Amino acid sequence: MSQMQYTLGIDIGSTTVKIAILDQKQQILFSDYQRHFANIRETLSALLQKAYDKLGNITVHPMITGSGGLTLANHLQIPFVQEVIAVSTSLQTLAPHTDVAIELGGEDAKIIYFEGGNVEQRMNGICAGGTGSFIDQMASLLQTDATGLNEYAKNYHSLYTIAARCGVFAKSDIQPLINEGATKEDLSASIFQAVVNQTISGLACGKPIRGHVAFLGGPLHFLSELKQSFIRTLKLDDDHIIDTDNSHLFAAIGSALNAKEETCYTMEEMVGKLSSDIKMEFEVERMEPLFASKEEYDGFCARHGAHHVTTSDLASYQGNCFLGIDAGSTTTKVALVGEDGSLLYSFYSSNDASPLKTAIRSLKEIHSILPKTAKIVRSCSTGYGEALMKAAFLLDDGEVETVAHYYAAAFFDPQVDCILDIGGQDMKCIKIKNQTVDSVQLNEACSSGCGSFIETFAKSLNYSVEDFAKAALFAEHPIDLGTRCTVFMNSKVKQAQKEGASVSDISAGLAYSVIKNALFKVIKVSDASELGKNIVVQGGTFYNDAVLRSFEKIADCQAIRPDIAGIMGAFGAALIAREHYEDGYHSSMLTIEQITNLQFETSMAKCKGCTNNCRLTINKFTGGRQYISGNRCERGLGKTKNENNIPNLYDYKLKRLFSYEPLSADQAPRGTVGIPRVLNMYENYPFWFTFFTRLGYRVVLSPSSNRKIYELGIESIPSESECYPAKLAHGHVAWLINQKVDFIFYPALFYERDEFHKANNHYNCPIVTSYSENIKNNVEEIGRGEVVFRNPFMAFSSLQTVTSALTKEFTELPVTEVMDAVKAAWDEQAAERQDMRDKGEEVLRFMEENHVRGVVLAGRPYHVDPEINHGIPELINSYNIAVLTEDAVSHLAEPERPLIVSDQWMYHSRLYAAASYVKTRDDLDLIQLNSFGCGLDAVTTDQVNDILSGSDKIYTCLKIDEVNNLGAARIRIRSLLSAIKVREQKNKQRVIRSSAISKVAFTEEMRKEYTILCPQMSPIHFEIMQAGFEACGYHFEVLGNDNKHAVDVGLKYVNNDACYPSLIVVGQIMDALLSGRYDLNKVAIIMTQTGGGCRATNYVGFIRRALEKADMPQVPVISLNLAGIESNPGFHLNAELLMRAAYSAAFGDIFMRCVYRMRPYEMTPGSVDALHTKWADKCREFVSRKHMNYFTFRKICRQIIREFDAIPIHEDMRKPKVGIVGEILVKFAPAANNHLVALLESEGAEAVVPDLLDFMLYCFYNQIYKADYLGTSRRASLFSRAGIWALEEMRGAAAKEFAKSRHFTPPVSIYKLVEYAKPIVNIGNQTGEGWFLTGEMVELIHGGVNNIVCTQPFGCLPNHVVGKGVIKELRKRFPSSNIVAIDYDPGASEVNQLNRIKLMLSTAQKNLNKRQM
């Protein structure tokens, strides 16, 4: 370092620029920190000028870091260092005894662990708004800034639970609290607490934060209370807090410490470099301008100017007036309407944290204008605060907002069939059929933030909303921000800013994305023409011309935007009051004098009625009246729960399942067994309780779930995107560990009981099946062996399979005792099921006798847990409606088959059966509960919807997760009730239709002239396979359109909760069919189907649904499977075809091994690819031969390997090897993993990808395991052993040649992989890539490949367990392993993926250098 006198570190963050200049002694001579509002170049230039003025023209050695630094570094020709390396350098220099560093930035959060030289870092993945910009967003809700929040938080009294899962969710939590009058002090502290919980649960992901902790980054430096929250939550004492000056500049200081001697510039040169404009290439896609010309805009304005409401002057009005108040989530709107429907007065204002005060202000204003000749005769409230307004002012009516909006829209266009309303933080799409609200779609807690998102963004760029909107109109290159959560948009916008996008481009891009979000994410239309013919748009956001224009462009329609778009709810409420008014009616509303003198005070209390501990907000008004909100049932209001005794089977089921009395300690000779009250225990607890009690154990059941239980287990949750029911399991197990039970029993049930013999299968969902594996691999006490944890894999298919599994598990007990206990338990389980069915029939009789309506609240067994359903059953009860569970009626009907889905999960088969029963009765409706992050519901929600809407029933689906905001649920339920009421009045007849589909078969005739399209999965393999299929007489074409565009098409045709691979597959197919290149009557689609328990088996159904949607039902879909799921007369999976496919896979595997191993080191660039091309042609020729000779095949394999082995390479060059494992499509398809192999090679690494044949072997091996442990057929097992032998024999020649070669390693036998995986996961993990994924990672590590990228689609269920879920255990067993899990999905920010991969590579490089020393 001695030669470098001054070093300059530059850190370009997502929101700020930081610089630090150090001298030889590493003392800071100059440092500064400034927000860049997207003007990175000017900001940096100003900072350097400041330093120049202070230090003079010194020569510095610069180094750049930070999320926004990469493009700038290339432009300025200054080296770039990965942020984490910079931060860890400065920590090791300035605070060497740090164990963990928590760093929050503008929009990234990181935790860095230092363990004896091994640096491991966790960054927020693609879902994590709990960072600096999240705090800014929250602050603007409380009308302050971050520093203001900090001041408030100093004086807090109590904390609320706020979800920091993403800023959007938190808004939906805070908004109701503000509306109910919570104090700013408490809210501020709660926001900080939310950030802490998000950081710990979202990033630590199962790795505890212990030891000396350093807090870095702007937010933690400037916000003392945020830091306090961390210290409080982590229970740190003063010795363990590392206080450093300049903690916000650590990345800048670190990059200065990493400066390179060979790069140096004078300060003058540095400032000069920045004076010229920096042109950067576009990485973010661009879209077409909103208006081509000024004329086009003028025409647009003229057309929309026509839709206005008649107004009259209130001061001179005579007659009756009607008042409507719409208390929204962020604004309050008031409208006064005359007898003829003319608007006399309107008011629109933001709530300023008190909707009541705002409403009173407006009513006073009305009073001051209202002449003696006019009189308010009836009033109605609507919106979020409807009940509060009604209680405060004693209004006459209250109506759910969807109905109010319909009244207002119908006033402008009586024929309206669709209303799109985008408000401050809610988005609604109301479909109208036969003059009634037919369906309501609301943004489920995710993807909201619509209007307020634009507002927050405008603020962050120092613009007013109006100017920001104006800027968009004539933008030349609007940026494409995709359709994902608003926080991802933040990062896309940041990326675009770095590429020099102007504010107008950003504003136009936001306008486009708000609409895309509304259409594709919330309403889920594939084609905007589905919306309707007469569309009315409303809500404050549509005042923004850019948003309206982008809607008309994307939806290709002309919408009506009333001039009162912002107050439609209030206008509708006033019209309802007008409709309800009859002569002689006396309004109950307070007089203006009473309203003017209305005093109210707000206080908080906790309801002690039950475990929900609802936090009540009590508003007391003058005259002793009070209004209580926040309660989920009537008890909080001081009444008894459910006074009318309307049946609630959720309540009954909970008691029936769990009110068994365990043995007392002296009656239990064999000790205690702990059972967690989670997931499938809501189905099988009666069995396990009886089983263990019979054997003489005292059963200890964990208590009902609540937040406290959840927080007990937060440290060991390995994946932030899994569903809430799964996350709760960690807390329940932690509770049992604290109880010191003898052992914890949590079995993994692969198959559930076979309740529906006609269904395709009776699996449990991947999470329910394997979750105990996650517990085993992530709960430290279990890992350290302090607790006995038993989780056998078993099948509940029949009494025999259960008996056999349990006698194997409890070998220490006498067999006869175990057998007797199993029999008793099996009978008890059957008795519980029978009780539920009887109870269901009893409730149906009750409904008939008392003329009460019923709702089947259909979900999974564990949705009975009150912490998961958030009191929705009680809410439905409160409207005098009976609540039934899906399993109380599922025995009364069966769906007509075949269904479009592969009906293979038992809990879901119940949903279909329940829906099939509901469609036969008029007094019964179905509401489906869907846990956020539940992948399987991408399949089930569409199917249940089909069954109900097919018979003219209304389908309602409620998304639930850890947030307990019942507002949205209330709106959906009330809209459903209001629609039912209108239907009853109109006396409409329904037609009951069958749910079966007719499949188009692929016939022998078709084989002659049809082209079969196959989606691309692995180019290296499929280019050879195509030739093999053609040789068998099929016109076979592998699609070449695996690109971003295909994904966009996929989003239109697949349920948006479906996984990324299904979007790519369906997208490629639909893109090809829509391209016009194929005769739609001469084309078929082929897709593989494994019949396994993951969603992939349902891709065939997804494709059929997409074809139906695109009006191409005639296209046959061929299922390629060995499991006999479906067959087609014209397509034969015979020995010849299998042989050609196997040869093709083997060739592809050889190429993959050879090319990836040699290409990074080749002496002549291009030589490896040229050899690959030469041999690929020969292989295609071989698999096309009429007669393929096995010995020729072996000879070709040997020749290929020898020729690759002989390519001249740089033998002494060392590069880190990086393994790629994960979900099969994302692993092999470059389009799906953003060209990961190319990326690794360009970053100076060598990619290692395990074989495709291994996956086939894995599928075979699973059959052997199932026969041995799960009681499936022995024949399948023998067939599979033969299959494994044949495949391993076939690749034997290549394996031998690889072993002899100088550069390659041979593939490992599947039996070896089993041995590798066994110590970590059970071989019963067979959904998706299952145990095989873990086995591959271990194989790579054994082969010296310690660096691994584990690729997975965002929210892939099996990967929560066998991917992310085993990383902790692998690190423990192989300390040198360096594994990064990367989520891929259409909205994933590539910058983030890149950062995480780069970090993994820098650690890899470090480890490589250490080994060479």
Plain-language structure description:
The chain is α/β, with parallel strands linked by helices. Helix content is 45%, strand content 15%. It is built from 54 helices and 40 strands. Strands 3-2-1-4-10 form a five-stranded mixed β-sheet. Helix 23 (649-658) runs antiparallel to helix 30 (815-850). The longest helix has 36 residues, at 815-850. Residues 635-640 have low confidence and may be disordered.
Brief write-up:
The chain is α/β, with parallel strands linked by helices. 58% of the residues are buried.
Number of strands: 40
Strand fraction = 15-25%
**Rg (CA only):** 33 Å
Structural class: alpha/beta
N-to-C terminal Cα separation, in Å? 20 Å
Uncertain stretches of 5 or more adjacent residues: 635-640
Count of DSSP H/I helices:
54
Describe the global form: globular
User: What share of residues is helical?
Assistant: 40-55%
- Residue-averaged pLDDT, rounded? 86
Summarize the biggest pleated sheet. 5 strands, mixed
* Biggest sheet: strand arrangement: 3-2-1-4-10
Notable characteristics:
1413 residues; alpha/beta; 5-stranded mixed sheet; 54 helices
Present the secondary structure layout:
Blueprint: E1 6-12, E2 16-22, E3 28-35, H1 40-55, E4 59-65, H2 69-76, H3 83-94, E5 100-104, E6 109-115, E7 118-123, H4 132-141, H5 146-153, H6 167-179, H7 184-204, E8 213-216, H8 218-222, H9 224-234, E9 241-242, H10 250-257, E10 265-266, H11 267-273, H12 294-305, E11 319-327, E12 331-338, E13 343-350, H13 355-369, E14 374-382, H14 386-393, E15 397-398, H15 401-412, E16 418-422, E17 427-433, E18 436-442, H16 450-460, H17 465-472, H18 486-498, H19 503-522, E19 535-538, H20 545-555, H21 568-580, H22 592-596, E20 600-606, E21 615-621, E22 626-629, H23 649-658, E23 672-675, H24 681-694, E24 698-701, H25 707-712, H26 724-738, E25 743-745, E26 748-751, H27 766-778, H28 780-783, E27 789-790, E28 793-795, H29 799-809, H30 815-850, E29 854-858, H31 866-869, H32 872-877, E30 882-885, H33 886-889, H34 906-918, E31 924-931, H35 937-949, E32 956-960, H36 967-986, H37 1004-1009, E33 1011-1014, H38 1019-1031, E34 1035-1038, H39 1044-1053, H40 1060-1074, E35 1083-1088, H41 1099-1109, E36 1117-1120, H42 1135-1158, H43 1167-1184, H44 1190-1205, ...
Parallel strand pairs: 1-4, 5-8, 8-9, 11-14, 14-15, 16-19, 23-24, 23-25, 25-27, 26-28, 29-30, 29-31, 31-32, 33-34, 33-35, 35-36, 37-38, 37-39, 39-40
Antiparallel strand pairs: 1-2, 2-3, 4-10, 5-6, 6-7, 11-12, 12-13, 16-17, 17-18, 20-21, 21-22
Helix pairs in contact: 1-11, 3-10, 4-6, 5-7, 6-7, 7-9, 15-21, 16-19, 17-19, 19-20, 23-30, 24-30, 26-27, 29-30, 34-35, 38-42, 38-43, 39-40, 40-41, 42-43, 42-44, 43-44, 44-49, 47-48, 50-51
